Amino acid sequence: MNVFIEVTLDLLQGFGTTVYIFAVTLALSLPLGLIIAFGAMSSFKPLRAVIKAIVWVVRGTPLMLQIIAIFYGPYLLFGISGFDRVPSVIVAFVVNYACYFSEIFRGGIEGVPAGQREAAQALGMTRTQAFTHVILLQVVKRVVPPMSNEIITLVKDTSLARIISVAEIIMSAQEYARAGLIWPIFYTGVFYLVFVGALTLLFNFIEKKLEYIKI
Amino acid sequence: MEFLRVEGLRKKFSQTEVLKGIDFNLQKGKILVIIGASGSGKTTLLRCLNFINLPDCGKIFLGGELLFDGSKKYTERELREKRLKFGLVFQSFNLFPQYTSLDNVRLAADLLIKERTMKNKTLRAELLAENRRRAEELLVAVGLGEKLSAYPSELSGGQQQRVAIARALAAEPDVLCFDEPTSALDPWLSDEVLKLIRSLVGRTMIVVTHEMEFARKVGDYVLFMENGEIVEEGLPDEIFSNPKNERTKAFLMRGGNVE
Ligand SMILES: Nc1ncnc2c1ncn2[C@@H]1O[C@H](COP(=O)(O)OP(=O)(O)O)[C@@H](O)[C@H]1O
Ligand SMILES: [Mg+2]
Q: What range defines the domain where residue A14 resides?
């Protein structure tokens, strides 16, 4: 029993890092994703092209590779030390997830029929009013399901931080495995399940709240 | 006395010229009906009048004053002021799905009131309450007094279009435009909408329609469009009983079918 409590506390500490990476990534990549989405829809062609290229690279290479590149890249290329471990992970995650989110936002915004904006315009609303009072909630309604999938993936992707020795929960459990205690590795699954379960409940709640909007 | 005058209105989309110089007048309180085959530019004309698309050239006069001149550049703000003069009821209703009937009708005016009463909170509350009453009255007038808190998805197509008409009326446009308001509706639902539009006589309206019987009975003046041009125009009885142009004849022979 003592061992169980000790392991639990230890894993909780690792899980704290996991949740930290998750929360910071989410808080930064959502707004960045929205900005990238607007860039991708801009009428300025060069900007669109640049953003398309970035999104292509980020979505076309493994996140693990991106973490390694950001952590070791500056040293290997320029002989300077770049970010620390945790900031490296966060930069990689934020950029990566912002690109995925931007595609979701873009789909959500472009998915709202043009007639909605036109009707708002014909009624004399300004562009801003049309966006905030007519379009926005319809975008939210559209993006919540794909967004929740992506966010749940992010929870599990945080385990990739281990690749540059950030002590998230799985790495904590591996210390035990190295010492001959195997079960903590599997025990980490419980933490993920509880966390993802809570998020799922939250997303279901939001979807329920938006159910009255039929689009 | 002419109220609305449109002169030499042209609109191009990339290479294709969709409106090739449209001219017409409309008197206050009269109903102009526009007929023509699909693709002839009717929707584009209404969208140009509402400045959803901007005409490339031509002039629009309203109440004797120049409202729009295609050779001038206007800011978004100026265009917004101009848009308030015209209302548009769409073929596909375009109600806002997240709002109830009542909120659909009062939203635009609410926003305008909030914009114009930044400082005066008492006046704002008064105006908002009055707007709410007016919106309710409009919905009662279109026969939806029971459906104030219904969402668009809970309404039939005919009811949705009636909400859309109430919503357009709430903005108190000088000219109300209808773009085939019944073509997305089953025949038995069209009647309630057509009846409602007829009950609006006295307002200045432009109605694009493929309901020939309605056009003949309700229209004060009829335009027949083809390929971005007005091919024939006149009083409904002249156009429908005694069309002069061969293409008008052919169109009416087909029963004025859209396709
Ligand atoms: N945004 C647009 N871009 C390019 N072509 C358009 C656009 N809107 C309309 N058109 C073209 O203009 C022509 C007239 O369309 P429209 O005004 O919708 O006619 P109608 O309402 O009489 O059916 C059609 O050939 C249509 O394809
Ligand atoms: Mg049309």
A: 2-209
Count structural domains, chain A.
1
Neighbour tally for B146: CB within 10 Å: 10
Q: What is the DSSP string of chain B?
A: -EEEEEEEEEEEETTEEEEEEEEEEEETT-EEEEEE-TTSSHHHHHHHHTTSS--SEEEEEETTEEEEETTS---HHHHHHHHTTEEEE-TT----TTS-HHHHHHHHHHHHHHHHTSS-HHHHHHHHHHHHHHHHHHHHHTT-GGGTT--GGGS-HHHHHHHHHHHHHHT--SEEEEESTTTTS-HHHHHHHHHHHHTTBTB-EEEE-S-HHHHHHH-SEEEEEETTEEEEEE-HHHHHHS--SHHHHHHHHTTT---
pLDDT tens profile A164-176: 888 889 888 888 8
Q: Do B83 and A121 count as a contact with CB atoms less than 8 A apart?
A: yes
pTM metric for this prediction: 0.89
Question: Does residue B136 surpass a pLDDT of 50?
Answer: yes
Categorize the per-residue pLDDT at B259 as very low, low, confident or very high, splitting at 50, 70 and 90. very low
Please choose from B13, B35, B42, B49 the residue to mutate so as to test ligand 1's pocket, defined by most ligand atoms within 8 A of CB: B13
Domain contains A126? yes
Residue A139 lies inside a defined structural domain of this protein: yes
Q: CATH code at A118?
A: 1.10.3720.10
Q: Taking residues A142-159, what's their average pLDDT? A: 94
Task: Residue window 183-242, chain B: list those with CB within 8 Å of chain A.
Answer: none
**Among the atoms of ligand 1, which is closest to the Cα of residue B228?**
14
Q: Whose CA is nearest to atom 24 of ligand 1?
A: B39
> Residue A215: inside a domain, yes or no?
no
Q: What is the pLDDT, as a whole number, of residue A96?
A: 96
Question: B256 pLDDT band (50/70/90 cuts)?
Answer: low
Q: Is residue A38 part of a domain?
A: yes
Give pLDDT tens digits for A188-198. 999 999 999 99
